[in-house]
């Protein structure tokens, strides 16, 4: 499988990186053949025992708030990263949970009691992702890094960021696979096929669609000439308005979820350089919905209506991890 | 207690409510004796089956991100609130988790595989808190209000929001007490006394200053004629630049915390109508740092430099809770 598809799959896992800063990286040619049989190459292999021999090397990051952990280790002498995350507690599981779990009293104080509740396995799943074979880049990507806020002028973008993006050869072939229905076609919930203003809308890979609490969808535009916010001008207003209106309608129709409860935004920098828009539940603190990275679609449209070249000229702030190559470029240019 | 003290107290507690902490409330005398036997009063009662007869009435709130749920129901005809939360995944449990869990393959794509992992009960505890008997105050405290995103035009502000603010008599006497050193004077870490461009800087009440992880300070301006972002024009650029520069310097000096790691922003709507600026750690997902409510100070300055009346004329989005009086006003005006 080529490197672009690997990168595509890597990008889909972005939420598993707590700071939401997911950059896809290319895979070296030699790794294409280094299939970790149990995970990747052999459909008949018994995957249910995949992790029984997992050998932990290091914890890359963990979050007590989000109940997840990212582990670097080995499966059958292959480097691997395993990501474990507890699943949300669903209302429809409560009845069975209360009936069939054991409660162990921990503390009692007047009207307050705390317990350890031990549910049966089928009611208490841990979402598990295995990356195998994992490269050094995977390990680095998941390792928790310090973050810094950069201020990028229009000129910085042209002289530092754009050359950097172009030098990295961030391929978006996996995006084209979705647009051309070569991959994930069954996940698309809406499409406007218009080549100028059209897009596909699909659930973000990390939303399991089992509850609305963490509703998360992505609209990916059909046209291939817009890398990010920086490329947007007033010429794109019809496209942006179309995404907003039809995207909100589709989500209402499919999930009964009204637009007034949505947060619709772009990222800058984006995780991949093909224009896409995030639709998340307003009550969900989605990773990357912070003001330092998100830009409300309604604001973007309004800014372009008032000033056609708004995003070409203004200074934009965004966070970068300590190990990000772009941060080094800004340091070299004495812009940080 | 007047409304602004309520608001101040509400501010102080907002993070705790968002975290779902169980804060004890004053209990009416009669309730002290109304013991829910199985949970509270009888040490010999078999608590392990306490919830087997639990009757769910309503879900008060739940978080897919934090993997918790707050449930209102009944235990033996007594009102109760049950709080369930998945526990963090600990490193020391990994070895046993990998050995003794069943993995069920969900999806495989090249080097990436996702699974449902079902651990044995002893490895997968749910932290459970029972409040029984629960009062109406408990139920209301834990009840999550729906939130809606409003779009307020400049005209909406003048015809709906401003009259509403003025009708509510939101007093900011407590703010003046800080500015005049009648209260919290010992918490001020920096002050510029200039009446036009000056401000005080102090830690936000919810930051205990024990770690930088959740660093949070507030700059409150001395001048009393700016309620919010809506009142700002290019006339205020010197004030805003002064807050930014001197605020960042003061934080660097006091805490060794550099500006590149700060998120500096205003809220719209603000919690109180006297201009103030938030300084939070970039790596801390502070409540209210989402794009729907936060406005980077650097962006505000830039917008005013380009367009003096920017915040008078543009449409601003912000979230409102279902029980917010302002939401009713927008509904009455058919703006929602």
UniProtKB/TrEMBL annotation, chains A, B:
Pfam families: DcpS, DcpS_C
Catalytic activity: a 5'-end (N(7)-methyl 5'-triphosphoguanosine)-ribonucleoside in mRNA + H2O = N(7)-methyl-GMP + a 5'-end diphospho-ribonucleoside in mRNA + 2 H(+)
Top EC class of this enzyme: hydrolase
Localization of this protein: Cytoplasm; Nucleus
Binding site residues for substrate: 174, 184, 204, 206, 267-278
One Gene Ontology cellular component: nucleus
Function summary: Decapping scavenger enzyme that catalyzes the cleavage of a residual cap structure following the degradation of mRNAs by the 3'->5' exosome-mediated mRNA decay pathway.
Full protein name: m7GpppX diphosphatase
